[in-house]
Structures are given as structure tokens and as C-alpha cells.
Amino acid sequence: MSQLTARALRKSYGGLEVVAGIDLELAPGECFGLLGPNGAGKTTTLRLCLGLTEPDAGTINVLDWPVPRAAREARARIGVVPQVDNLDPDFTVRENLLVYGRYFGLRDAEINMRIPRLIDFAGLSARAGDSIKTLSGGMKRRLTLARALVNDPDLLFLDEPTTGLDPQARHLIWERLRQLLAQGKTIFLTTHFMDEAERLCHRLAIMDRGRIIAAGSPRELIGAHIEPHVVEVYGDGAQAWAEARGAGLSERCERAGETVFCYARDADPLLGDLERQSALKYLHRQANLEDVFLRLTGRDLRD
User: Fold this and answer.
1) What is the pTM of this model?
2) Domains of the chain (ranges plus CATH)?
3) If both were cysteines, with which of 33, 43, 51, 112 could 68 make a disulfide (CB 3.0 to 4.6 Å apart)?
4) Which pLDDT value is given to residue 303?
5) What is the pLDDT of residues 225-264, one digit of tens each?
6) Which residues pair with 19 in a beta bridge?
């Protein structure tokens, strides 16, 4: 039984179709990632699934509730971590959890039983009585995640949960998300971090210009859309080398700034040639999800 099903979902603003007939389905206990460049329609899709935006067409079912008609009932079993922390700065860590729990109709006694576990989950046991204004960005992000669990939801919507965090804070958030998955929670994740998606997600959909252009597990997407080896070549002569030598020794080469990316099924000919190019620097690595993302959505900057 699916935790979320969307069929032929559409939404337009001012004549521009930002969600163009997409289908989604989330299985219980999985982390599903929705990826895409800025303006692809990811946040609008999340708002549609949460019943915060009315679709122009299509059907949405969340936790057996039709959305948006029964969005209020569905949201009682949902946790949401928005892009921007919206904690109340006038309350302490503990008070933020208490007040938020009341929105779900929970009694104070029940919330108070949950608060120690949630604060421990956020790694803030020593800061329970502190004002939100004294917390670092990483602490606030962890508290926002803990707050989303106050109603013990079955399904979590995480909209770019680690944006703006340092590597240590990101890894701690990832650890907490893995704990939730181990508990059987279902996660709907949007992110611009390809390594985050590759580490956490069981399945992914890549969205661009309102449409789903690819879907599958991270390994399936990499295997289907990109050559297994990537050689990044740097230096003033990289482009000239690529045109003279690299293009013939690889399946394809792409330039981004001062770097040439060579994609190959067999990297040995490329590496052998580069060893003789003393003026060039290079890096050989396995293809990853970011390579797939850039191939499918392009390297041009989106604003």
C-alpha cells in the first residue's frame, strides 16, 4: 500500500505550467528523492501533495486520504521540514516543541512525555531551556527535524533539509534520517546535494520544467544514463587537448569553465595519454549522480 500516490498532476501559474502531468508513488519505509534545478517544480509538487496548493488536474492520495479534499486529516499523520526554519524565536527549545504539538490536538501531558526523546534526537539535551536565538544554524535545523516528529508521523516531507549547513551538521542530519528510515518512516526528500540523494534515497525522480525526465534507484540512473568512468582535466591547454586527443579517446567530452569532463567506458587510454601531458592536471573517478543530473538537465545556470 502506497504512502503517497499522485497521478497526472498539473499546476500552472500565469499560463506557465510548472507541474506538467507527473506521476509519483511512495512505498512505505522508503526514502524517495525529487531532484531538479531551480524552477523545475519541486516545491510546487510538495505543496500540491500537502494540500497547500490546489491542482489544476490530477489526483493525489496521501495516507489513504484524498488531497486536497481531506488534506487536514492527512496532515495529522505527516511531518514537514520546510526549506527555511520557522521556529518561534520567542520560545525556548522545549517550548517550541510543546506549542507545535498542540497544533495536532495533543494534550500537554502527552507532548511532555515525547519532548525528552525529541530533544535527545536533535542532540540538544543540554540546550532544552535555551532560547532559539542562541542556537547555531545546525542546531536549529536539527530542532526543526525533531519538531516535525512531535506527532509521530508516518510520512515526512523534507524540503532541502541540509541547505546552508556545514559538513559535520549535514552528516549528523543524515544519521538522524537513517534512524527514522530504520524505524519504518517514509521520507519524501528534495535536495540540491547529489551526494545526499545518493546516500539516502532508495528511489529518485529527476524533474525538469515540470516533468519527470528520469526515475529509478541511484545505481539504476547512473548505469542507464552515464558512462562508468569520468576523467576531469584541468589547465590552460585542457580544451585544446580535448579537441585533439580526448574526444577520440572517450565516448564524449564536455567543458565547464576551465575543466573538461571526459566520459568513458574504458579510462585506460585517456589516463595513458594524460600521463604524457605534463602541463595538464587530471582526476579519475567513478561516475556519480551529479554527472547524471548535469547530463539530463544541462550545465547552464538556473535562477
Assistant:
1) 0.92
2) 4-217 (3.40.50.300), 227-286 (3.30.70)
3) 51
4) 61
5) 999 999 999 988 999 999 999 899 999 999 988 899 999 9
6) 11
